[in-house]
Amino acid sequence: MIYGGARGGGKTDAALGEFALHAAVHGADARGLLVRRTRTALEPTIERARQIFGPEQAVWREAKSRFDWPSGAVLYFRHLDNDADADLYQGHSYTRVYVEELTQFPSPRPVDKLKATLRSAAGVPCRFRATCNPGGAGHNWVKARYIDPGPWMVVEEDGLTRQFIPARLADNPKLADADPLYVARLRQTGSAELVRAWLEGDWSIVEGAFFDKWSLRNIVRPFAVPAFWTRIRAFDWGYAAPFSVGWWAVASDHWQVEGAVIPRGALVRYREWYGAATGQGLRLTAERVAAGILEREAGERISNAVADPSIFREDGGSSIAERMARAGCRFRAADNTRVGAMGGWDPMRARIAGDDHGPMLFVFDTCRDFIRTVPVLQHDPGARRRP
Hints:
By secondary structure, this protein is of the alpha/beta class.
């Protein structure tokens, strides 16, 4: 279960309070682990835990970095930065695992490894809990796994369930009463986009997003694409990693649709096929991918088809492009040349932004994987700009 969104929603108190209730019910069989990425980040949580657990007569043991309850219940506080740290917990057993600021983890791997410690010989129900705000290095994977299915939605997978509970500043009225200047100070601590995400719990707003002009006006409800519009297919190969096929149409004239006007020359992504399952590739052969593409575009006239140049490489045999061509699905190599600071991405940014009359790039709301991944792509802070 993930409790996240706006800052100031009482997320830490919720996690600590949940374990206090767990300890009251299960006594010595309640064993918890609470982690953050750094020891320094844990210190405010430990201080808050002293206040909450004090009435429970739980005692803080500095040397062991844990709270002990008279009943025998235990809650450990640790830092977790990477896979190697997670490996140290192999063989441990906990009935609760809490991760604070989940979006600070660039990858889910160390967190997922901790889930293997959730077990109880006494039969105590074991649960994973996490708190987080929008933004951070792990924004994308947290959003895809927990946020995108929808608030309060229970998602079942392999017999396990997960759920996202949105946090709002209004959920914690005591904070506003005790600190009426909290919001004013928060507005001074980050970019306008990040502060808005913090205050509103809006996961569609990402600080440092490469396509920072993306908005809801770029998303349209599906409509019948006129047969005379030019249609383009774009492909990015993947086997162990996901592949992506996108079908685009170029508007031949101004076109009125529900809630928007598609200008002449605008690009419209009207279909996609994202080859992934649980975050990994489908491991389909080139021939099967080709057949899937042809099946999806049956009856259409595709004027141009481009693919990442990597599929044209030969490695002791036929290239992926050759194998797909023999199956009836042909591509030409896309031009990946980068010119200037942003190269070929700049026209796409301009199309997304558009002008006062609207954008020049639209995406059907059924193209969920494009909407999920592209708008939150981040600038590479280590990339060097060239003149």
